[in-house]
């Protein structure tokens, strides 16, 4: 049985839809109930929902054999696991953004609000800019509006949140997409099953066909 951590929300729905299309469906997940794990012994899979930012922790510690999470999380936490495949979904960009008229006075320390303090620190070190990180857990866009920070370092998908708050991308830093990740011990002991799952997903990615997203209760 492969244990699969799904990220609650749209990414998890897209992930499950791709897994089902690859032959790893689990009808129990479609039922309306309060169960937390769903399995299909015939296909050798057990799914469970977790917070998107926790997928890598479940996989790193072996509570899940595999999972799907954003490259942003992998860059930030650098978990000890294998990255097996770029699923080509959940695409966005990690960016520096700020007010439209932002001028960077290099004589001052730049105040940067972000959920991704490690990635931000590495980026600003690479360009030799002095910064003060303000670590937040969400609603990052509000920080420059209230004068808490000069800029933000965050993921941008449609750009809608920035636009609606009169902010704009100042610098694109790294593209992000969802990755199939795997526990290192599981990769050894459940090698065949995991490779079968990876290859099934890889064929879907290569085919370029868009998989219809299945709406799920979670
Ligand atoms: C993310 C990100 C931005 C927004 C970008 O936030 O931090 O706020 O999505 O998406 P957009 O470019 O399509 O507008 P999320 O929805 O994860 O919520 P959060 O603010 O609680 O982190």
Annotation keywords:
elongated; binds 1-O-pyrophosphono-5-O-phosphono-alpha-D-ribofuranose; six-stranded mixed β-sheet; alpha/beta; five-stranded mixed β-sheet; about 220 residues
What does this structure look like?
- This protein is of the alpha/beta class and 218 residues long.
- 31% of the residues lie in helices and 30% in strands.
- It has a 6-stranded mixed β-sheet with strand order 2-3-1-4-11-5. The protein has a 5-stranded mixed β-sheet with strand order 8-7-9-6-10.
- 1-O-pyrophosphono-5-O-phosphono-alpha-D-ribofuranose is lined by residues 138-141, 154-161.
Summarize the structure.
The chain has helices at residues 10-21, 55-60, 71-77, 117-126, 142-145, 160-164, 184-189, 191-207, and strands at residues 2-7, 37-40, 45-50, 66-70, 82-86, 92-99, 110-114, 131-135, 151-156, 167-176, 178-182. With 218 residues, it is of the alpha/beta class.
What's the SSE blueprint?
Blueprint: E1 2-7, H1 10-21, E2 37-40, E3 45-50, H2 55-60, E4 66-70, H3 71-77, E5 82-86, E6 92-99, E7 110-114, H4 117-126, E8 131-135, H5 142-145, E9 151-156, H6 160-164, E10 167-176, E11 178-182, H7 184-189, H8 191-207
Parallel strand pairs: 1-3, 1-4, 7-8, 7-9
Antiparallel strand pairs: 2-3, 4-11, 5-11, 6-9, 6-10
**What low-confidence regions span 5 or more consecutive residues with pLDDT below 50?**
none
What is the number of strand segments?
11
Rg computed from alpha carbons, rounded to a whole number of angstroms:
19 Å
The helix content, as a percent range, equals 25-40%
Tell me, briefly, the overall form: elongated
Describe the sheet with the most strands. 6 strands, mixed
Overall mean pLDDT stands at: 96
Order of strands across the biggest sheet?
2-3-1-4-11-5
Strand content: 25-35%
Number of helices: 8
Distance between the termini: 22 Å
Given helix and strand content, the structural type is: alpha/beta
The arrangement of helices and strands along the chain is EHEEHEHEEEHEHEHEEHH
| Ligands and ions found | 1-O-pyrophosphono-5-O-phosphono-alpha-D-ribofuranose
